[in-house]
Amino acid sequence: MANSKLGRSSFLGYPLSKLSLALLFLVGLVVAVTADDLNFPSSNTRKSHHPSKKLNKPVVLLISTDGFRFGYQFKTETPNMDLLISRGTEAKTGLIPVFPTMTFPNHYSIATGLYPAYHGIIMNKFTDPVTGEYFNLNLSPKWWLGEPLWETVMNQGLKAATMFWPGSEVPKGSWTCPKGFCKAPFNASFPLEERVDTILSYFDLPESDIPDFMTLYFDEPDKQAHQYGPDDPRITLAVAKIDKMIGRLIQGLKKRKVFGDVHVILLGDHGMVTNCDKKVIYIDDLADWVKIPADWIQAYFPVLAMNPRWGKDVENPGEKNADLVAKMNEALSSGKVENGEFLQVYLKEKLPERLHYSESTRIPPIIGMVGEGLMFKQNRTNAQECFGNHGYDNMFFSMRTIFIGHGPRFRKGKKVPSFENVQVYNIVAEILGLQPAPNNGSSLFTRSILLPFGETAQVE
Ligand SMILES: [Zn+2]
User: Fold this and answer.
1) Which residues contact 207 (CB under 8 A, 6 or more apart)?
2) pLDDT digits (tens, 9 = 90+) for 74-111
3) Cα(151) to centroid of ligand 1, in Å?
4) Considering the entire predicted model, what is its pTM?
5) What domains can you pick out in the chain, each with its CATH number?
6) Which Gene3D superfamilies does the record cross-reference, listed alphabetically (predicted)?
7) Among 78, 303, 339, 351, which lies 20 to 30 A Cα-Cα from 50?
């Protein structure tokens, strides 16, 4: 729309007497519109036929839609997401979250490229077993380890802006959460439309002031799905609303003639699964094998987190922990504990390596992996109705979310296999030409998902 409008005014300004030249121009115009609307920029023809191009620097907009389970996009019409997918690169079977598949650990893994054991936000809420301090969405920098993208960007002389993102309010390095470029504190009632419009307003700044890196966070469809479960019709409406916000963004970028220039990465933090009363394991059912005081348990499900308090007179607490784990697993596999087969308890250093969930003193010594959609509760008195949750093993397909990349460095209509979200940090760093901080992603991975820098240089 914006291109044809601009094209029309240029055409009207052309001398009518030079008919052949005007016709030539018209042909050029058709090529330009076709290239922009159908063939997303992939060759240097774009430069000569794209008078609307505005940005002369790479810009990345990283968007998270919380709890957007892979497959939600098929619940309803999502024309705007479809547009990004058809003209961009998509993880064909979704983006793999890190374990535990919770909001804060995952958003901060996306931002740092680190597994939770290394970035320190090991759950949404937890008690540090060493210091006894409690983390509850705390903003003190000491909790937030690693180097998030907004810090890398600022440390290397570029500009960042955050429209909500877990951890973005925390001052780190050159990042101070600057007023006007860092919306804080998080406010769930701040309308999604205004979040989009705040991002769009940055594109009205002189180019040198446009942030090179921006985050945009939507706390839906997660919120609704926790309350009603992932299959409720209200989730379908929430998905449609998110797509509408993407549409609002695309239209705003098109109006400013930068849609083709901005790298839009649309992803989620985790998926969602239904919990129901019938899928519960009760601690009290283990009493014949082992007694577990309630104050040893920091979290019940989707991750069982236990920090037994053996007392000062116990000489080898590690041995006692191992003994406790063995007794719990004996009970759970006895066939006498309801749903017992759906809980496996580990010393944290014995957890499957693929979870990367042991190398932190913040992780309690005993971790239980609860089966997909299962709950672990103290006793039978506190049962509830069905609802939705996440946090389970990142191997479960229900925990997967989406990844869509759109912009000059992303191939058009490309599908890539699923990958872990710790790769996203390097992708953004590569697009922005930044030296990445040490992280758990692979620097080679960016080659499988991005066009080589040289090809982009032609486009630019
Ligand atoms: Zn959630």
Assistant:
1) 54, 55, 56, 57
2) 999 999 999 999 999 999 999 999 999 999 999 999 99
3) 25
4) 0.87
5) 59-273+395-449 (3.40.720.10), 278-384 (3.30.1360.180)
6) 3.30.1360.180, Alkaline Phosphatase, subunit A
7) 78
